[in-house]
Amino acid sequence: MLAPRRSYPESAMNTKFPLASAAQLFSDPARAAMLTLLLDDRPRSAGELALGANVSAQSASMHLSQLLEGGLVVVSREGRNRFYRLSRPEVANAIEALGAISTPGKYMPTGANQALCYARTCYDHLAGEFGVRLTEGLERKGMLSKTGRRDYEVTAAGEELLRTWKIKLSELRGTRRSFARRCMDWTERREHLAGAVGAAVCNRFFEMKWIRRDRQSRAVHVSPQGERELAQLLA
Fold it and tell me: CA 123, CA 126: separation in Å to the nearest integer?
């Protein structure tokens, strides 16, 4: 028997401690599964999310309604179909951070998880071992520097590198989202590059065919050229 539907009125999402309301949405296994499936920033139907969360269509509808009301996902219509995606990059950052603190010790991949742990997308930027190694390489080369508790700044050397990748920082600074954010990687337990710069780098890597998407998951596959470019950067 399905559990009775619980509603989360707007007033409940604006309490004195809104963190508790958000945590309640993350805490359900089915909703957590759906949010994790949406980490690749690809829109998915309610049917896909129900299948991935191993729940009935009716139960999936209830959970998605709660996530919508809580502001964690958004929905768009294409004809008669409705497609869901994460509402903003900060939701993906929160999911990665929660994964990092909820897994004891360093995550040890097995089987199919090995590809996911090596290289994947975290919303719209690179994560996993590949993303962390790239970020740390940029730091060692003096192209990224940490600023504050959550951000990076791109140095002059970093700006020159990004220019060779045809990434214009002046355009990225004009956007409303965070410029260069430090995002905790849940498998590597170290930080990778997020924000507008992280998204631009990931998108450019796709365009240059250094990486390609996996059809079944948010893993990305690194091409031989991509591996060579990373090795050269880290040298």
Answer: 8
The three-point CA angle 196-72-120 to 5° equals: 50
Q: pLDDT value at position 104?
A: 60
pLDDT at position 172 over 60: yes
Residue 41 identity (one-letter amino acid): D
By three-state DSSP, how is residue 220 classified? strand
b/e per residue, 96-128, with b = 16+ CB within 10 A?
Answer: bebbbeeeeeebeeeeeeebbbbbbbbbbbbbb
| Cα angle for residues 38, 36, 65 (degrees, 5° grid) | 65
Mean pLDDT of the region 71-97? 86
Contact (Cβ atoms closer than 8 angstroms) between residue 143 and residue 111: no
Q: Which residues in 211-229 are b (16+ Cβ under 10 Å) and which e?
A: beebeebbbbebeeebeeb
Does this model's pTM top 0.85? My answer is no
Q: Return d(Cα 141, Cα 163) in angstroms, integer.
A: 16
Comparing CA positions, the residue from 175, 161, 167, 154 lying closest to residue 202 is: 167
Q: Quick: pLDDT tens for 173-192.
A: 877 788 999 988 888 888 99
The distance of Cα 56 from the centroid of its chain, to the nearest Å, equals 26
Percent of the chain scoring above 70 in pLDDT: 88
Give yes or no for a contact between 153 and 142, defined as CB atoms under 8 angstroms apart: no
